[in-house]
Every structure is written in structure tokens, then in C-alpha cells.
Design brief:
Blueprint (H helix, E strand, L loop, with lengths): L13 E5 L10 E5 L5 E7 L66 H6 L4 E5 L2 E5 L2 H7 L5 E4 L3 E4 L3 E3 L2 E6 L3 E5 L10 E3 L4 E6 L6 E4 L11 E3 L4 E10 L15 E3 L2 E10 L2 E2 L5 E3 L4 E5 L2 E3 L2 E2 L5 E3 L2 E10 L2 E2 L5 E3 L4 E10 L2 E2 L4 E5 L4 E4 L11 E4 L5 E4 L12 E5 L11 E3 L2 H4 L5 E4 L14 E5 L14 H11 L17 H14 L6 H24 L7 E4 L5 H8 L8 E8 L4 E9 L9 E6 L15 E4 L3 E8 L7 E7 L5 E7 L7 E2 L2 E5 L5 H20 L7 E7 L3 E7 L1 H8 L11 H25 L17 E7 L9 E2 L4 E4 L3 H5 L7 H11 L13 H17 L7 H8 L3 H14 L16 H15 L11 H19 L2 H9 L10 H18 L3 H6 L8 H7 L34 E7 L2 E7 L6 E8 L2 E6 L3 E3 L9 E7 L4 E3 L3 E4 ...
Parallel strand pairs: 1-2, 3-42, 6-9, 7-10, 8-11, 9-12, 10-13, 11-14, 12-15, 13-15, 14-16, 15-17, 16-19, 17-20, 17-21, 18-22, 19-23, 20-24, 21-24, 22-25, 23-26, 24-27, 25-28, 26-29, 27-30, 29-31, 30-32, 31-33, 32-34, 33-35, 46-47, 48-49, 49-51
Antiparallel strand pairs: 1-34, 2-36, 4-5, 4-6, 37-44, 38-43, 38-45, 39-42, 39-44, 40-41, 40-43, 47-48, 50-51, 52-53, 53-56, 54-55, 54-57, 57-58, 59-60
Length: 1149
């Protein structure tokens, strides 16, 4: 689109207006008019190489002299916002191009000699001579209006804030640094200028600096520098460093400057600041912040990382570099404020989740001068609601055809007079070549229309002319020309549009409508559109036979977010439909996507997504997250820049709408474009899964021949769609999958179609059964009466690579969970599908947010799977020798150590249970062990003495699943628990985790009908608050010693160990070795016995797992007996025994 024709028939000023046409006498008007609501073309720069532009030499500026009578209003802030329509205000936004030289001989200090002589001092020199001061505080107190305080020191350590309440100057001949006294662990406000005061900071030498260094000490929510209303701070050669208000809080509003007055910085630096917002400076209403020849470096924040401004900001001849924003935007101008940028370079600043660099809001204005470089940065400027605008003072030179600046208006111009984009002169108007202006803000993940139709109109009878698209007939014509199809998917061409008579009719209507305006631009655009109709017809005919195969249907799964909120799970799985295409690295991928269906992009988005598979740039987990671009109805044009991407990215359709849609992906016929990759989808409602799988593995084998020659990327994906259990995707390297399948040597897949069919059907059954078990354990039911318990249909995504190692080789981030390729083989061929790593990471994403205890609650899936697997192993290998250690390691390598640790605590603290700290002794394993044993035992326990109303749920889902259900249902019992959780001081360090552990105590009590405070205190959870214990005390205590149960007891039934019967007797004998006695127990059901208690005079004194009890420190005058327990906590008591001193031996009585 040649925008240079705009410059014809114009005068000094031109505007772009959204939603209206504005004309004034002899003024050329640029009108933003969308070509069509249904034509969208997107250019996405996935990455850009860093530029090598050099910064021009810094120009020093002279500080403003407060004594200058001609500058008497410098301390005042003009409360009146700049009116861009005010002809008398045309120079208000200009910066004096002539710098003031600090080395100007006419500006020499008359006290030069004494200044040099009085080294390492603080003094004031006036007509009465020199006054020396021991401290700066004394000098400030003694100083009168307009005094210069000479500070010839290198360091001043502050014990309190420097308060300025008059007009003063600090001057030094040193590199002067202000720091906090080392006795302070935290910082405070270093400098405050009170209302109507001023402070000028200057150095004698241009290479010296005055430094305010916050040393990264927490400022306790104070700014480093505070300038109050009508106060002025002028600083030349100054640095403001390391202001830290980052204390894991989400409401810190500033770090370095909090400005309510006027700040002027010349050759200054703001760096190392940390704050949630406004790390560099925050401007309040009517304030002014000016920086010339400065640097803003290495500052960190969540959003608005440099500034949130309600005042006027002017940045010129400066560098903004290496600043880091976790989220959102760089600058905000608010409440009729302005931000002016002249000759500023933005370099190497990073944004994790946005590509907006400047956001202008509520009637504010962005003023762009020349030489502004956003190289390698997000280049989006958003104009928020209520008449925000951009004024361009000069031609923007740093942009080219493929490196454009986006300006979005989040709100259409409702007033005809309002200017969205204003050009100050003819040179500025040439910038139109290098920018795109669009009606609505679209995020970097959205589809950005870069082919907007711009109409240039001259003035017409001194009237304001409304937007041309106010005429519905003209609007319909442009729609037809931009999308010449009868259906949304572009499968039926409107042949009438290529007929000569129809085209002439269109030309006549357009020319008649625009007869009073300059027609050159209109004619060019119109002719191009009409020519394009013929080209599209040719392209359609050429591609006609492929159209049907390009159509994909996305079912109504509802949005991933709505499913997440419904289930309270911690996943962020996307409803990502496989398209079978990938973005080719090293090129700009051009392709079209057609969309048919009802969408509402304000609430429910239909998107194209892309992520790498198997090979990931920089091996970073962040680079696996989906790139996403919004789709609109009908045609969406894409140009995805992959020139700097080393690896391909797989394409998906993401349907977060509440309706089914259809899309058609159309690769380019004659330009670099997307390519196909192999994939397989198992569909529960189709009978040809085996046949399609056979075709898939043969396609995979052929595809891998091109992968081995580096012509194709090493990627493939599998998806399993189950009627009730939802969807499961596995993305992996195509070669790795082929190698895994080759391990099935007993029934080779690639040699037999029958083997392939049998394998995929058996594999799908195993996978479906796995998810049935997982869902049931978590309390889900596909057809539950309460929708909250329905299984999520979102696409659960498992991701394999061999290269990502951080944060670990095993990790989950919500959108997917990652496992190393070395772990994949047994899972992919169905040999081991209950693995700990798989269930641990899946558990992270399925954790219930209301009770999530990180790296503990998610492991309960792995514990249950290990138990089930071991039970199956025992049943299938009845004659195998099973050791306790081998069984415990079946759960996890850490479990033998944990159980040994618990037994030691249990035995040593049997009489002082309150001293058992097992539960709190480690972060993860003790809670897992305690919860799992207690609720697994009660799941299989006869709850006849419990008053729980959830007995049926416990019987069906287990204690954990029953608890999850009342959380999801948010029933009265759950609401009660949410109300009783205290704001305890002890939870401050890790509030979410600790309070969730208390919620689990209360919820398990409700579900089981027993006091779980009492049960978990037996495992050493001694941090339960009184308010929780008071709540759970309404339930009866569990009378049996549940703490005696061990993990291996859960497989005793599978090993056919008999329980105690009425006839079972616990017999004891006594043996003496080396003058020491021991009690030897004997019981027929010894394999079922899990522990022994020793009682002295009817009081419990000892517990052991051993059947032999060494009798040390025994009281020969007391009576004893032993009680043993089986794995259901049935008990048997031995006869009482005493020491017969006459016979000098123990015997029963």
C-alpha cells in the first residue's frame, strides 16, 4: 500500500480518525476505514534479532537556575492540560533543541578557589564568608532561600530522610554518594521536597555524579525520592540507583521517584529499581517529569515497569534499556496527561506476556518526535478509552515495510472533532508509511489486520464529513470485494464478481460516492481489489479439489477456563484441536484460515495456536507455551515470521467458545507456507480407528525418512477421544515414537496390519481405564447429577522432550506437563501406564486449588496407583517372595525412609504423642504418608459408628474423592470450612500451603464423621489451630489406633493373610539371654499382625512392630500384658504376666 500519495493535496496538518471523518479548511484528512469486517491479515514476528544501532553522544544540559528572574515560574506546574486544538499552544510540546553547556565559562562559580580548598567539608559561602557544618542536616537547617550548600565529600550515610522546605542547591566537586547508615537493614525515604520548595543538584566536574543509592534495601513502601506539589527537583549528572519496593507485595506503587511537582533530570540515570508498578517514577496529577540525555536501565516490575503517570512526561535524547516487565505495559499516561518522546532508544527490554510498550488512557496524548527506536521490541501502542490520541511531530524513520508500529484505539472516536492521530507537518505525515492504525486493540496473540483501508479526503465546504462507511451500500461493496465467496469457509465462489458488467457497476458506484474527493488513492485501491477478484478466482479453481480435506470441525467443549473454574482444578489445558500443519522455521509462513460459526470475541475466543514439539528453542519451558492468534468469521490472513526460529511449531485450533465451529486452513500455493506432519486421533464413536492407525504408522515411517535427512521436523502427535473420560494428547518426536513401537517385537506393528489394529484398540482401552480410575479417585462422574463433578473435556496434554531440563526433566505448568523422552517408551507401548512421574505431574494439573498442598496432594495419585499395581502384582505372582523394603519401594524410593522415620517417632513417643513432630518434619513426604494411610484405611473400614452423610460417596469414590466432591459442589459443609479457617500468624510464611493443610483436616472430619484433628495429631500435625480443633471436636474420636497401619498392610488381603477370629489367641513365652529377658509372642495369624503394645498396670508403655519384646527397665513389682493388632485393627490380648521373685523368672497368671 503506497502511502506517499497521501502527501498530495495537503497542507500542514493531517489526522486519522476512527469512526468519523473530520475536515477543516485546506487541511488534508487521513481517514481510517476498515476494508472489511471479515478480512483479516496478520503479521506475527515470533522473534527478531537484536539491532546494532549505536546511541548518539550524550549532550549535557545545564540545570535551571532558580535565581534567574526570567525563570520565576519554573517552580509552578501549569494545571491546565494542553489543548491540541489551541492555535496559541502550538509550541507547548516542543523541547528547546539547544542544550545548555555546563562548561560554559559565563557560568563559572565565583567561589571556585575556596571550593577547591575546603576538601571533605560541608559549607555555605555567602557575603559574610564561609560557614562549615559537621552534618548536611545542620547546613540545611541553617541555610536561607537560594543558598548553595557545597558538599565536598564522597559519602554521606543517612540516619533519616533529607527534608527540603526551601529553595536550595547541592553542589559537589566529588563523586558524591548518599547511602543508608549501615546499621539499617531496611531502607527509607532518602529525600523529600516539601510543597513550594526546590532543590538543584550539580557537580563541579561533568564526569562526576551525585548518587542516591538505595542498595536494594527494602524501602518499606516509600519512594527513594519524594517531590511534593509545586516543588521542583533539578539534577544534572546524577544517578538514582537500586530503589527496592519489591517485597512480594502486589500493591507497591513506586520505587525511585514519587512525583507530585516538577522533576528535571539532565545526564542522569535511574537503574536497578524494583516495584510492582512504576519502578522508575510515578507522576501524580499536574506533575511534570523531564529527562534529557539520560538512561533508564535494569529496572524490574510486574507492569507499568517504568511509570504510571497522571502528569506530563518528556523523555529526550535518552536510552531505555534492559528493563523487565512480568506483565503488561511500559508506560501509562492517564487523566489528561501526556508523554513526549524525542530521540529515545528502547533496547533489550523484555515483556513476558504483552507486546504493548505504551498505553495512553482517558484523554491523554502521546507525542512522538523523530529518531525513536523501538528496535527488537514490542511495537504496539494502545489508545484507551475517552479520547486518547497520538501526535507525531516528525517523520518516524526507524521503520520499514516489515517493521511497523501498531497503534490501536480501544474505543472508537464518538465525537467528530476528536483526532485519534495527528500529524504536525508534511514530514510527520510521511510516517503513515510506517504505522498501522486499527480500531480495536488486539493482543500480540490475536490476529492483527494489517491491510486496513485508508481513505484520504480533502476539505469539503468547511464541513465535518462523516465516515464513508456510514453508507451501508458502499460498505457492502467493500465487503464483497474483500471476500468474494457465498459461504464463510470460502468453498463457493461468487462468479458474478468477475463479470465485466458487475465490475463496471461497482466502479461507477464508488466513483460517484467519492466524486468530491481526491480519487487517486481510492482509484488505486479499487482497481487493485477488482484485479484481486480475478486472481482469487484462479486460485480457487486451482485449489478446488483440496478444499474439503482442509476443513476441520471443532466440537463444543466449552472454554478451558470455564471447565477449570467449574472443577476447581489447577490445569490450564487448552481445547486444542490438531490441524496437521506446522509452521516452517526460517521463513515467513503465509496461509489463510477461514472460520464458519457464531463467535463472540469479547467473551469466547476462537484462536489459532502454535507450539514447538520435541525440539524447543533454548530448551526453555516457556517456549513450549502456545502462541495464540484470534480468529474472526470468514477470512483470516496470516504471515507468521519464523525467520529467527530454529524449530518448527505445530498448529492447533483453540475453541474457547460455547459452540461448535468449522475452519478451513489454506496453505499458500505460490509462497513459503505451512507444511503437514503425521498425526493420529482415536475417536470413540468411529469403527475405523484400527485402519487409520495402520495408515498412520506407515505414514510415520515414511515421514521419518525425511526427518533423518533434516527436511522435516521431528514431530508427531496422538490424541485419544473417549466418550466419558475426555481427551488426552501426547506430543513427541516422530522418530522416538517409531523407535518405541519397534520394541513390540512379539507382535511387530509395522509388519502386520492385524497387530497394529489389535495394539491400538488394546492401548486405547488401557488408557481409558487409567483415566476412569484417576477420575474416580478424584470423585468425578461423567453423568453425575451435579455438573461440578463432570469430567473435564479439555485436552489433557502430555509433552515429551529429551532436552528441557529446567525447572526439571519432570514438571507441570498447567497448560501441559512435561516428561523426558527416556521415560516415554513404556508408556507409549502400554507396558507401564501408572508410573509415578506421569501421575505426579498430571496430579499437579488436577490438584484442587482450594486444598492444594504443593508437591504433596498431587502425589496421592501416585500412591494409589502404586498400591493398585502392587496388589495386581501380588495376585499375579502368588509364590513370589515379597520383602517389606521391596514393597515400600514400589511406592517411591523415599517411602522406606519415611516409614522408618514414622515408626521411630511412634515408638519413642508412644506415651507423649504431643511430642511427635513427624507430620511437620519435612515438606512433602510426611503429609503424603499421613493422609494416604489414614484415608485409605477408613475407605475400607466399616463406618457403622460414624454419622457421616457421605458414606455412600466414600464407598464409591473413597475418602479423598468424597471430599473433593463437597469442595466442587460448594455445599454447606464446605462453606463452613471456608469460614472457620483463621488468619493465624504461624501461616504467614506459607499461608496457602499451611491453611490448605488445615482445610484438609476439617474436610476429612466432615466426610468421614471422625475428628481428623485427633487422627492427624497422632501423625505429628501439631500446628492445627484451636478454632479448627474446636470445629472438628463435634465429631467423635476414632477409637482404634489408626496410626499403627502401615503401607504394606494394604496388600495383606491380596496375599490372603487371615484376620483374627474369635478363636485366635496371643500366646507369650519368656526367654533369657545373657541375663536379659525377652517376651516372645506367638499367634497363628502372625502374618496379619502389624504391631504389639506393652501395658504396665493397665497403662500403655511401649509399642513395637517386633514379635519379640526385650524386657529392659522392667518393674518387678508390676503386672504386664501385651495387645496385638491385625491389619483391620482387630486386637488380641495376652495373659497378664508378672515376675516371680521366688523363682526368679517371669510367668503368666
Amino acid at each position: 500500500m503506497n502511502k506517499k500519495s497521501i502527501l498530495k493535496n495537503k497542507k500542514k496538518i493531517a489526522f486519522i480518525v476512527l469512526g468519523s471523518i473530520v475536515t477543516t479548511t485546506t487541511i488534508a484528512i487521513a481517514i481510517f476505514v476498515p476494508l472489511s469486517k471479515n478480512k483479516n491479515k496478520t503479521t506475527i514476528n515470533v522473534s527478531k534479532d537484536e539491532g546494532n544501532d549505536k546511541v548518539k553522544p550524550i549532550v549535557d544540559l545545564k540545570p535551571i537556575d532558580n535565581n534567574d528572574q526570567n525563570n520565576k515560574d519554573n517552580n509552578k506546574v501549569d494545571p491546565k492540560p494542553i489543548d491540541n486544538n489551541d492555535q496559541n499552544n502550538e509550541d507547548n510540546n516542543k523541547v528547546d533543541p539547544k542544550p545548555i553547556d555546563n562548561n560554559d565559562q559565563n557560568n563559572e562559580d565565583s567561589s571556585n578557589d575556596s571550593f577547591e580548598k575546603l576538601d571533605n567539608t560541608i559549607y555555605i559561602e555567602d557575603k559574610n564568608g564561609i560557614q562549615n557544618f559537621e552534618t548536611l542536616e545542620q547546613a540545611i537547617k541553617k541555610a536561607v532561600e537560594n543558598d548553595i550548600i557545597n558538599i565536598n565529600k564522597e559519602l554521606i550515610e543517612l540516619d533519616e530522610t533529607i527534608i527540603i522546605n526551601k529553595n536550595l542547591t547541592f553542589k559537589t566537586n566529588k563523586n558524591l554518594t548518599f547511602k543508608f547508615n549501615s546499621k539499617f537493614e531496611e531502607g527509607f525515604k532518602m529525600l523529600e521536597l516539601e510543597e513550594n520548595s526546590s532543590l538543584t543538584l550539580i557537580t563541579k566536574k561533568t564526569d562526576d555524579f551525585i548518587v542516591f543509592d538505595g542498595e536494594n534495601k527494602f524501602l518499606q513502601d516509600n519512594p527513594l525520592i519524594h517531590v511534593l506539589k509545586n516543588a521542583k527537583l533539578s539534577a544534572t549528572n546524577a544517578k538514582f540507583l537500586n530503589a527496592n519496593n519489591n517485597n512480594n507485595k502486589f500493591n507497591t506503587k513506586f520505587a525511585t521517584f514519587w512525583n507530585k511537582g516538577h522533576i528535571i533530570l539532565n545526564n542522569a540515570e535511574i537503574s536497578g529499581a524494583k516495584s510492582y508498578v512504576s519502578a522508575a517514577f510515578r507522576n501524580e496529577k499536574d506533575s511534570i517529569f523531564e529527562m534529557n540525555s539520560g538512561k533508564i536501565l535494569n529496572n524490574t516490575g510486574h507492569h507499568y515497569v517504568l511509570s504510571y503517570s497522571k502528569g506530563k512526561t518528556i523523555l529526550s535524547n535518552s536510552i531505555i534499556e534492559n528493563n523487565n516487565a512480568q506483565w503488561e505495559i511500559f508506560f501509562v499516561a492517564d487523566q489528561k496527561s501526556s508523554l513526549e518522546i524525542q530521540n529515545v532508544k528502547f533496547k533489550n527490554n523484555s515483556f513476558y506476556n504483552s507486546d504493548v510498550i505504551i498505553w495512553i488512557h482517558e484523554g491523554s496524548q502521546l507525542i512522538l518526535g523523530s529518531q525513536i527506536d523501538f528496535k527488537n521490541l514490542p511495537r504496539a501502542i494502545v489508545l484507551g478509552k475517552k479520547n486518547a490520541s497520538v501526535k507525531i511531530l516528525d517523520k518516524l524513520e526507524k521503520y520499514g515495510k516489515n517493521d511497523k508500529l501498531f497503534i490501536f484505539s480501544a474505543e472508537h472516536a464518538k465525537n467528530n472533532n476528536f483526532k485519534i492521530l495527528e500529524f504536525a507537518n508534511e514530514q510527520a505525515l510521511e510516517s503513515l508509511e510506517n504505522i498501522y492504525v486499527q480500531k480495536d486493540y488486539k493482543r500480540k496473540t490475536d490476529n492483527r489486520d494489517i491491510d486496513d483501508f485508508i481513505v484520504i479526503q480533502n476539505s469539503h465546504e468547511n464541513k465535518l464529513i462523516w465516515n464513508a462507511f456510514g453508507d451501508s451500500e458502499i460498505y457492502d461493496i467493500y465487503n464483497q470485494l474483500s471476500f468474494p465467496f457465498k459461504d464463510d469457509l470460502g468453498t463457493e465462489f461468487d462468479d458474478s464478481l468477475v463479470e465485466e458488467a458487475k465490475q463496471q457497476e461497482i466502479k461507477n458506484k464508488i466513483n460517484e460516492f467519492y466524486k468530491d474527493y481526491s480519487n487517486e488513492r481510492i482509484a488505486k485501491k479499487l482497481n487493485k481489489l477488482l484485479e484481486n477478484i480475478k486472481l482469487q478466482k484462479e486460485k480457487f479453481e486451482k485449489n478446488k479439489n483440496n478444499i474439503t480435506s482442509q476443513i476441520n470441525t471443532s466440537p463444543n467443549l466449552k472454554s478451558a477456563n470455564s471447565n477449570r473454574e467449574r472443577t476447581n482444578q489447577d490445569f490450564r489445558y487448552e481445547n486444542a484441536e490438531i490441524l496437521g500443519y506446522y509452521l516452517v522455521p526460517g521463513i515467513i509462513n503465509k496461509f489463510n484460515v477461514y472460520l464458519e460459526g457464531e463467535i463472540d470475541n469479547k467473551n469466547n475466543f476462537i484462536r489459532i495456536g502454535a507450539r514447538p514439539v520435541n525440539n524447543v528453542k533454548d530448551n526453555k519451558w516457556q517456549n513450549v507455551l502456545l502462541n495464540k492468534w484470534n480468529l474472526e468469521r470468514k477470512l483470516n490472513k496470516f504471515e507468521v515470521d519464523m525467520t529467527n526460529e530454529p524449530y518448527a511449531k505445530m498448529l492447533f485450533l483453540i475453541n474457547d467458545g460455547n459452540r461448535s465451529v468449522k475452519i478451513r486452513v489454506e496453505p499458500s500455493n505460490d509462497e513459503p507456507t505451512i507444511q503437514k506432519h503425521p498425526y493420529f486421533i482415536y475417536k470413540h464413536d468411529q469403527n475405523d480407528n484400527g485402519e487409520r492407525f495402520w495408515n498412520y504408522i506407515n505414514e510415520l515411517k515414511e515421514y521419518n525418512k525425511t526427518v533423518n535427512s533434516y527436511d522435516k521436523p521431528n514431530m508427531t502427535i496422538l490424541e485419544f477421544q473417549f466418550e466419558e473420560q475426555g481427551n488426552f494428547q501426547i506430543s513427541i518426536g516422530s522418530r522416538e515414537l517409531e523407535e518405541a513401537y519397534k520394541q513390540l517385537t512379539d507382535k511387530p506393528l509395522f509388519e502386520s496390519k492385524e497387530n497394529a489394529i489389535n495394539f491400538i484398540e488394546n492401548y486405547a482401552t488401557k488408557l481409558e481405564n487409567l483415566f476412569k480410575w484417576i477420575r474416580k479417585f478424584d470423585g468425578y462422574e461423567a453423568k453425575d447429577l451435579n455438573e461440578a463433578n463432570h469430567i473435564t473435556p479439555s485436552k489433557v496434554h502430555m509433552y515429551f522432550t529429551s532436552t528441557i531440563i529446567k525447572p526439571s526433566t519432570f514438571f507441570a505448568i498447567g497448560e501441559y506437563f512435561h516428561l523426558p523422552t527416556s521415560y516415554s517408551r513404556d508408556f507409549l507401548i502400554g507396558r507401564q501406564m501408572h508410573g509415578w512421574g506421569f501421575l505426579h505431574e498430571l496430579g499437579h494439573t488436577t490438584d484442587n486449588r482450594n486444598i492444594m498442598y504443593p508437591d504433596s496432594t498431587n502425589n496421592l495419585f501416585g500412591m494409589e496407583a502404586a498400591r493398585k499395581d502392587f496388589e495386581n502384582y501380588v495376585k499375579q505372582n502368588p509364590n513370589s517372595k515379597i520383602t517389606l523394603d521391596s514393597e515400600l519401594r514400589f511406592y517411591h524410593e523415599a517411602i522406606p525412609r519415611i516409614e522408618k522415620k514414622f515408626n521411630e517417632k511412634l515408638m519413642n513417643k508412644i506415651n507423649k504423642k504431643e511430642n511427635n513432630d513427624f507430620f511437620l518434619s519435612e515438606k512433602f513426604w510426611p503429609p503424603i504418608y499421613s493422609w494416604y494411610i489414614s484415608f485409605t484405611f477408613l475407605k475400607n473400614f466399616d463406618l457403622k459408628d460414624s454419622n457421616s452423610k457421605y458414606k455412600e460417596d466414600i464407598k464409591k469414590y473413597g475418602l479423598w474423592g468424597a471430599m473433593q466432591r463437597i469442595i466442587r459442589e460448594k455445599d454447606d459443609d464446605f462453606n463452613k470450612v471456608m469460614e472457620i479457617i483463621p488468619n493465624e500468624q504461624q501461616a504467614n510464611m506459607d499461608r496457602k500451603k499451611i491453611i490448605n493443610s488445615w482445610r484438609i483436616v476439617a474436610l476429612l472430619s466432615i466426610v468421614s464423621g471422625y475428628d481428623f484433628s485427633d487422627i492427624l495429631q497422632r501423625y505429628g500435625q501439631n500446628d492445627i489451630p484451636e478454632i479448627v480443633k474446636s470445629f472438628t471436636s463435634q465429631f467423635p474420636k476414632f477409637s482404634l489406633p489408626i496410626e499403627y497401619i502401615t503401607l504394606n498392610t494394604f496388600t495383606f488381603k491380596a496375599q490372603n493373610f487371615p484376620l483374627y477370629s474369635d478363636k485366635t489367641e496371643l500366646n507369650i513365652t519368656f526367654e533369657q539371654e545373657n541375663s536379659k529377658w525377652k517376651v516372645v509372642t506367638d499367634i497363628p495369624e502372625k502374618d496379619s499382625t502389624i504391631g504389639y503394645e506393652l501395658y504396665k498396670n493397665d497403662k500403655l508403655v511401649y509399642f513395637t512392630r517386633s514379635k519379640d519384646i526385650l524386657m529392659e527397665n522392667m518393674d518387678y513389682n508390676s503386672s504386664y500384658y501385651i495387645i496385638s493388632y491385625d491389619y483391620k485393627l482387630n486386637k488380641k490380648q495376652s495373659k497378664t504376666f508378672v515376675f516371680d521373685q521366688s523363682e526368679n523368672k517371669w510367668k503368666t497368671i
